[in-house]
Automatic annotation (TrEMBL):
This is CheW protein. It comes from Sphaerotilus natans subsp. natans DSM 6575. Transmembrane segments: none annotated. Pfam families: CheW. GO terms for biological process: chemotaxis; signal transduction. CDD domains: CheW_like (cd00588). SUPFAM superfamilies: CheW-like.
Length: 176
């Protein structure tokens, strides 16, 4: 019970900080998340509200990473396992889903999609990170810069606004 309350408190604090940061003009930063052990950064300007996974209505004949549809604040939203669509895992383990969070896209992007992430890791600001040159010329368009934090951990930026342009992301119907 205490763990659930602590998670809710963390989620509330993150949501408040996201709102505070968004209200400041010209402030850049990221929402840091983890998926299948990978450290990822979502630009604050593109990330939306954070939710608990909750009840999902499964959609038949879809890819395993398309988890279903949820009612998020009165809006019908497709929920995608980010690690699954990125090819980091085939199926979402139940133990991971119980601890996961859903991050909606910013309403300004006009995309009714939310991403299930394994863990929230707080907020990151550019002054906390050091840009790392990427040697991968074949990186997809949604892959932003690579960053290293003070502890030496590498973080990959994911441009949420570019993710829906990827063919794999758009093809939710499973091959028969």
């Amino acid at each position: 019970m205490a763990n659930k309350e602590a998670l809710r408190a963390l989620q509330g604090r993150l949501a408040e900080r996201l709102q505070e940061v968004r209200s400041l003009e010209h402030v850049s930063g990221w929402l840091a998340v983890e998926c299948a052990g990978q450290a990822l950064l979502f630009p604050l300007a593109e990330a939306g509200e954070i939710f608990q996974p909750g009840a999902l209505l499964e959609v038949p004949h879809t890819e395993p990473w398309f988890l279903g549809v949820a009612n998020l604040r009165g809006s019908l939203t497709g929920v995608i396992d980010l690690a699954g669509v990125l090819g980091l895992r085939e199926r979402l383990p139940a133990a991971v889903r119980d601890q996961a969070h859903v991050v909606a896209f910013n309403p300004s992007l006009d995309i009714n999609v939310a991403l299930l992430v394994d863990r929230l890791a707080g907020l990151r600001h550019p002054e906390q990170m050091q840009a790392v040159a990427s040697a991968d010329a074949t990186a997809p368009a949604f892959a932003g810069g690579c960053w290293r934090d003070g502890a030496g951990r590498l973080w990959q930026e994911i441009r949420l606004s570019m993710l829906p342009r990827e063919e794999r992301f758009l093809r939710i119907v499973a091959a028969r």
